[in-house]
Amino acid sequence: MAHGNFTQVTEFILTGVSERPDLQIPLFFVFLVIYGLTVTGNLSIITLTSVDSRLQTPMYFFLRHLAIINLGNSTVIAPKMLINFLVKKHTTSYYECAIQLGVFLVFIVAEVLMLAVMAYDRYVAICNPLLYMAVVSRRICFLLVSLTYLYSFCTSIVTSSSVFSMTYCSSNVINHFYCDTVPLLALSCSDTSVPEAVIFISASTNLVFSISTVVASYFNIVLSILRICSSEGRKKAFSTCASHMTAVSVFYGTLLFMYLQPQTNHSMGVDKMASVFYTLVIPMLNPIIYSLRNNDVKAALKMFIRNTCCSLNHSSFKTL
Fold this sequence. Notes:
Structural class: mainly alpha
């Protein structure tokens, strides 16, 4: 990073979701509820898949890490966003902005790859059930998750470094509610062709690889399900995959819209809404989608609540 960046711009101003003063408090409560549900839902998934013996399978191991990623992604964005609804000056320091972008990229790239890993897991489970525990062993699970986080970290370093290697010397007002690549590129007074190329190549490579893996996996899954003679078996197999397919379709749709359109076609108002969706709404919806359509998770949740209530009642009885 050039020294000039620090002397010319030491802080940025975030415009937020809306600049209308009368909407700040209502929006604060709306996003507080969304973030609260996100934390509750994802912590529930993380806890249940960690403590319940019936959920100690590769599918739930990957689901736990998806919940960790969703929780991390929202937590990078939401607290600062909520604070800005309540204060007049929406400033963020140069370093804070760089850190937020870097950590956000780690989680968003990790989510893209984790969805591909989960699709591959479902493919092996349904298309090669006899080889499932051998192909998706505990060691392979740890390896896939470790590589996902490592690759995401490296991608984040390269992308965020390219964005913050540019010179910011005039306006420091970011037309967004967090530090993202597109609004930061719009502020630079230096040549943005290299960072734009890095972002486009990185986003397109990650999305094409992930979507190809998901499409290929589910194409083979559908073919396998259609070969099942029992209608009950087909229904169960489709039900197992429906939640993942729903979450994947919504998530990829918003990312493709955001990052694979030309820079000149970006509308920041529309981009903000898309960003709200994949940074805050989707992390809130994923635990609901996976738990409401999954009997194992629902049974584990009921058992966990029952055991917790029994423990509390027993503790209260002992105290009395």
